[in-house]
Amino acid sequence: MPEATLTKVHQGFSYRLDPTPEQRHLLASHAGAARFCHNFLLGIILANWKDNRERKEAGEEVARESYLGTRQFDLQKLWYERRAESAPWFSENASSTYNYAHAHLAQAFANYFAGRTRLPTFKSKGRRESFTLAGGSTRLVDSHHVRLSRIGEIKTYETMRKLHRHLERGSARILSVTVVERGGMYTLAFSAEMSRVIPAPRPPERVIGIDVGLATLYTGATPDGTPVLSVANPRHYQRSEARLARAQRVASRRRGPRKGVTPSNRWRRANQRVQNVHADIAHARKNLIHETTTMLAKSYDRIVVEDLNVKGMLKNHTLAKHISDASWSEFVCQLEYKATWYGSTVVKADRFFPSSKTCSSCGAVKAKLSLEIRTYHCETCGLTLDRDHNAAVNLARWTSQATSAGTHSVAGRGGEVRPRRTRSVKAHPDEASTETPVPVGA
Ligand SMILES: [Zn+2]
Description:
By secondary structure, the protein is of the alpha+beta class. It has helices at residues 21-57, 72-86, 95-113, 161-169, 235-253, 265-299, 310-313, 319-342, 387-396; strands spanning 5-18, 129-134, 139-142, 145-148, 152-156, 172-182, 185-198, 207-212, 216-221, 227-232, 302-306, 345-349, 375-377, 384-386, 433-436. It is globular. The relative contact order is 0.13. Mean pLDDT is 83; it is low at 402-442.
């Protein structure tokens, strides 16, 4: 039996800020400085490349040394050399703002060279402004006030009690803070290193399969067919959908941003209302996912979910569908890291496992089952069951041996199963964690 380990995990905490007008000014100044630094250095590098290209085309021999470096150290050096002349105001903003701008640009170049992304682009003003500060100089005064270097003590709308408690206990360390401004709304995102005791995985005694749907968001069942979870798609989604449509209609009648046209103040206000509805929906969704995933990770030892192709699904157009699909990837992502916290295990059933089309009673597989059909009716054995419930039961019984295409590195029942961690999954901004196991003792 493996033992519990003490692990350092990175976790994000984000809170909305309530800055004073003077603080807004300082925040905007920092964001502007970060943007300037990014654009300035990117401009120098791109000009250097262009220069070298032209020299090459002219038949000149261009040495390696003619290329400016793009690592953080190189960019930093470049900034130190040129800032006094090009940005004489630089010292008005906290120095770590620039350091992070260098680091982020260096990372963007590294991603480009590795073929992961396109060439870094210039940042334009007003779209989404952000800057990052070092965590060392950031203090939580209490659960509602945060002190940022050069900006001062800012009030937050929500309580930061959880993070505050961790900091006081010494079980968290702030690595960095990123301030993001969108539509006049400031959000502070902490990246923290948390010390956590990770329990050994429990033997799979309590098993649940979970199906995702539209009317019912999550349907859960045990292998013996007992329905144990039914999370309805909350009413407010439908209500919000109507609110959103109304707000969008109003905004569309006003003078919005077009080339060469400044948007009217009436449009700005209307657009702000649209953004608010979006934020409300996101918040409600987040809470629901947190509640459900925590409950599941605490109550079950083995949780089987579908391995959905979310990217393809997001092409759907109705809002409800969109929300439900986006929720699913977030749901699975949260479930996976919470499972490690509580010693539970998440298993992704094979993508080609026909969980919806298989009869949970006799095992017959339908050739086709369209989405509108909400009840599963088996022609072979006569079973009539709610479609989602039927799928959940099949998932609960799923083992890698069940499908011939079982290429997953997942053991069947009774085997030792660890959740797979995919770093490519975009971490949830709140409570997201990437794990760096540091076994202690053991
Ligand atoms: Zn049947």
